[in-house]
Amino acid sequence: MNRVIILGPQGSGKSTQGKIIADFLGVKILSSGDIIRRSIEGKTDLGKRIGRLVNKGALIPDQDIIELIFGRLDNSEYQQGFLLDGFPRNIRQARILDKHYFIDKVFNIEISDDEAIRRIQGRLICPQGHIFHNDYRQPMKDHQCDICRQPLYHRIDDQEEAVVQRLIIYHQNTSKLLDYYMQQQKLVIFDGHGSIITVNKKILEYLQRNVKQKNIRRN
């Protein structure tokens, strides 16, 4: 098991759990969000086009995000495996991905919309992207990042109305995506309502059982 995908709505903790999965498997994480930000900062023609779309709040076309993802997957650091975070987001992207790469497993972290909204609204972020939370990860000093000492703030798009809209779009796309991977018998679902440690324990227990079993079958 060395090519995997992690899915889950915002606030589910998928990026945190994704790091733990990637460490266990010994693979690199490829985050669509990180790639998009780097593309915009690089000011390439594609980056400029994507930047204009992001500023408008518009969706990035499939062909553009696929170009970014595949461009990175061709790098040598991903040849031994990868964990995709934030891609694919719809059936078309998943089918194109399947034509180029065999995906071993798809992990989905499930939480209710109410819980997602509660978690996101309590989120605090600094200019460097370090994330804290009013309930789960409070900074040592109010309104200041523990790492870079810069101010912490609530993102404008973390307000409830914006979060609800993103969740609607997420469910519209992801419900079909989950069915797609379920039919392939690749989907593994975890309840994300517990603490980070609780969810992490469930995931590690699964990996310890199934990665070993798969390696035995390969031999």
Automatic annotation (TrEMBL):
The keyword Kinase appears for this protein: yes
GO biological process, one term: AMP salvage
Keyword DNA-binding among UniProt keywords: no
EC number, as in UniProt: 2.7.4.3
Record: residues binding ATP: 11-16, 123, 131-132, 194
Biological function: Catalyzes the reversible transfer of the terminal phosphate group between ATP and AMP. Plays an important role in cellular energy homeostasis and in adenine nucleotide metabolism.
Similarity field: Belongs to the adenylate kinase family.
Protein name as catalogued: Adenylate kinase
Primary gene name: adk
